[in-house]
Amino acid sequence: MNPLLSRLQPYPFERLRQLFASVTPNPQYRPISLGIGEPRHATPQLIKDALAGNLGGLAVYPATAGEPRLREAMAAWVQRRYGVTVDPATQVLPVTGSREALFGLAQVVVDPTHPGATVVCPNPLYQIYEGAALLAGATPYFVASDPARNFAIDWDRVPDEVWQRTQLLYVCSPGNPAGAVMPLDEWQKLFALSDRHGFVIASDECYSEIYFRDEAPLGGLEAATRLGRSDFKNLIALTSLSKRSNVPGMRSGFVAGDAALIKAFLLYRTYNGTAMSPVVQAASVAAWNDEAHVVDNRALYRAKFAEVTPVLATVMDVKLPDAGFYLWAGVPPQVCGGSDTEFARSLLAQYNVTVLPGSYLGRDAHGANPGAGRVRMALVAESAECAEAAARIVQFINQNSH
């Protein structure tokens, strides 16, 4: 067996199952889960129609590079969304969801024969970053977030000697779990570091279309263009239809950026067997070409967050994120001793509401786990269910405060 597999940590939801193994939820309440970030709004009919109308594609082997019309639809969306021009033939590549692309990119970029090969990751983080680094033969370096800046990642904490051996940097903007969006000056800092040390930046932007302010979140390609980096050197942006269009089961997204990296990634994917089904390609074209359903989806999230956030803010340290569909809430110190894991267990036992302990999303690094004492709540269910969950959480906290 590959010895690197032994370095992987259990996935957060496996840890959650273990945590709840001895818990009996209160049967007086119907179960409500805020634990998993799985979009639960209705899939748009236009996507269903495109799937049903292109079933003939099941009889065809797909090309790894995808059909030209799909890449053109993706490039056109980048132009409309960010005002950025990318070549659909050389700077865009369809992927079967951003998760597999985030993992695969590390296998392409990292040179494990280089002494001290390092992948820099945010902390808390999407666990794929860590697993991708480990299985590529690199060492993850975790950079903690700054609570004073809405839990934005504090890149200034990374010593220069770490940047010197860094081969890949994962950024997530809007972030998971706190929803912070990276501003232009932060991008400028990271681009300068990339130029100096030669590492690749992987910009995970899967939450970019769920936001609460008037201005849409800045993307990596957009930031590069504003800073005169239209060749996107050492930059790959990754996005997905899962959250934008409520199709997590379709496994469809794309990467865009540095043409040299896209070429290498295409070679890797040709051998990896991750070509997108022609049926999914047709549905993806329909999704990327339509913005009305995205506007409607965003309005649903805005209404939910406007209703739920003030309620929870009466008893928890929580505020509206920049973007995304998570609330990153502090556990009151007078409840369960401030323990995020005990809070999750007791909340399930007493009120049948599931939340994810923040420590499961963080890593013990530099003397602390930045997720400890917080919980992540995914407001993915319908508004009434999310509001009921918030009311139960308030009741739970008031009942258990001492």
Describe this structure in words.
Strand 3, helix 5 and strand 4 (139-146) form a beta-alpha-beta unit. The chain folds into two domains: 3-42 and 293-400, Aspartate Aminotransferase, domain 1; 45-289, Type I PLP-dependent aspartate aminotransferase-like (Major domain) (Aspartate Aminotransferase, domain 2, 3-Layer(aba) Sandwich), CATH 3.40.640. Helix 3 packs parallel to helix 11 (278-288), helix 4 (98-109) crosses helix 10 (259-272) and helix 12 (292-313) runs parallel beside helix 14 (383-400). Strands 2-9-8-7-6-3-4-5 form an eight-stranded mixed sheet, sandwiched between helices. The protein is globular. It has 402 residues and is α/β, with parallel strands linked by helices. The protein starts with 11 loop residues before the first helix and ends with a helix. The protein has helices spanning 12-19, 45-52, 68-82, 98-109, 127-135, 160-165, 184-197, 220-226, 241-245, 259-272, 278-288, 292-313, 340-351, 383-400, and strands at 32-33, 92-95, 118-123, 139-146, 152-153, 166-172, 200-204, 235-240, 253-257, 326-330, 353-354, 356-357, 374-378. The model has no long low-confidence stretch (mean pLDDT 97).
Distance between the termini: 50 Å
Give the neighbour order of strands across the main sheet. Answer: 2-9-8-7-6-3-4-5
The CATH architecture of the largest domain is 3-Layer(aba) Sandwich
Q: How many structural domains?
A: 2
Largest sheet features: 8 strands, mixed
- The radius of gyration computed from the alpha-carbon positions, rounded to a whole number of angstroms, is 21 Å
User: Total helix count?
Assistant: 14
Which spans of ≥5 residues are poorly predicted at pLDDT below 50? none
Shape: globular
The CATH topology name of the largest domain reads Aspartate Aminotransferase, domain 2
Strand composition percent: 5-15%
